[in-house]
Amino acid sequence: MKNLYFLALFAIVLASCQPNVKNTAKTTPSVTDTVVKAKKNPNFQWEAATVYFLLTDRFNNGNPENDLNFERDEATGKLRGFMGGDIQGITQKIKDGYFTKLGVNAIWFTPVIEQVHGATDEGTGNTYAYHGYWAKDWTALDPNFGTEKNLETLIKTAHENGIRVLLDVVLNHTGPVTEKDPAWPEEWVRTSPTCEFTTYENTTNCTLVANLPDILTESDTAVNLPDALLAKWKTEGRLSEELDELELFFDRTGHPRAPRFYIMKWLTDYINKYGVDGFRVDTVKHANENAWAELYKESSAAFELWKKKNADKVLDNNPFYMVGEVYNYGISGGREYDFGDKKVDYFANGFKSLINFELKTDAEKDYESIFSKYSKLLHSTLKDKSVLNYLTSHDDGQPFDKERTNPKRAANVLLLTPGASQIYYGDETARDLTIEGTEGDATLRSFMNWNELDSLAKTKEILNHWQQIGSFRNDHPAIGAGIHKIITKEPYVFSRYLNKDEFVDKVVIALDLPKGKKSISVKGVFGDGTKLYDRYSETESTVANGKVVLENNFDIVLLEPKQ
């Protein structure tokens, strides 16, 4: 790794000594349809990751033959049934270079384990478990999403393209009770009371909503496996295998056969088998924090073992990564989440990062207010930790710019704010979030708008903007993990600088620029005579008197040393 850093620095120095060659600036953005060769960033770090989050069922249908299983054919509310997206569809888009062109270096997709077979109505219309959060069997994949071979191929293909994979995991609840799906035994779950969310106790020891049985994650009492699960495994011809693996797990770890440890075993199997790089953990504040520390310990051990067995497939030296959904956590809260009567530091219990619910409101502020705030917090209170920023998601009914009036500003805010970034599928193509006739969060979960990307010039232009910034971000960890510093207020120019483990990275970025000729200060970052390259306009320039001069019709500049 160190050799790679020195070679990169040498290349920069060498390039700065070459004669000046002017390139003509692009006049119109373009989106190419050619497959892009994967560019693996040897300096990847989770603090600067660009994570693409998608609903497996709503992204891309790679295999129409698996669209209907378990007779899930009842009528549903609008956008509340399965629509055909699957694991193969995700793999197809990896192979097409879609994620690579967008600068994505990690993919998080909704759970693909076997879901409850029946439908239920939570007050928003008859609903099937298309979203993946209603587990029936943690040890099997749902055929609507695909097979274990499909998952293995997805992860292998992602890794070959320099993309890490985050599995979305649920530890604290099963799926709802339906006519086809009985409740788990009472020694496994509680079915009441429903959470009130006013204290630690009535947030952790309760059901998230009515008819969503809550795993007794706080219990250390040994329990037997549910008869229904044993009968299912026997029918599928894998009862002995599953029981033998559980015996080995509990003998090795010494954990009691309590509900949470069974599920931890089943979840870490996906690491042992496929080398999953991390977990996005659902509903974190609805289980005692010690459960997450235990999950991280078991996950890390599984990941290190996988890396030893698969040295030729290892992407980097990063440890196993866990990011948590502590609903309504904001970066201003620092290390702790306040339940009202108790504060919990989830960062001290297995989590490298938490999803940040604050950026969607911060996004209304000016760029400098956002960037300086996040840089300060991440390099002080949250030093060596991170947050995963987002503007829209699958269950946030108040996203930033729900009408998609300014998707380019959304890209600027999301991809240039310090921290890791979560692109929600369709952010980059302005997918509609206001679907008429939907109830609740269904409006946020329409099928990916590939048809608009294929036919509308405006959609292609929006995607190009996201691609330009996203690929620049992927190549420069300083954007997410570095120190932010304003250079000039008007025009708005700033730098990001990262110096970590003998790796140095620095860039200068300008936003809201006028069309035509523009002078960009790079003082204190790049010296006179340095050759710089603007990735947005594809223009080379040389620093003189602490500035570079560019002439184009773009309002953004992304400056890096000319390679």
Your description of this structure?
The protein is α/β, with parallel strands linked by helices. It is 29% helix and 19% strand. The strands form 7 sheets. An 8-stranded parallel beta barrel has the order 1-2-7-10-11-14-15-16. Helix 3 packs parallel to helix 5, helix 9 runs parallel beside helix 10 and helix 13 (407-416) packs parallel to helix 15. The longest helix has 21 residues, at 289-309. Residues 1-36 have low confidence and may be disordered.
Features:
19% strand; 563 residues; globular; alpha/beta; eight-stranded parallel barrel; single chain
The first-to-last residue Cα distance is 19 Å
Structure summary, number of beta strands: 24
Q: If you average the pLDDT, what whole number results?
A: 93
- Beta-strand content: 15-25%
Biggest sheet strand order reads 1-2-7-10-11-14-15-16
Secondary structure: helix percent: 25-40%
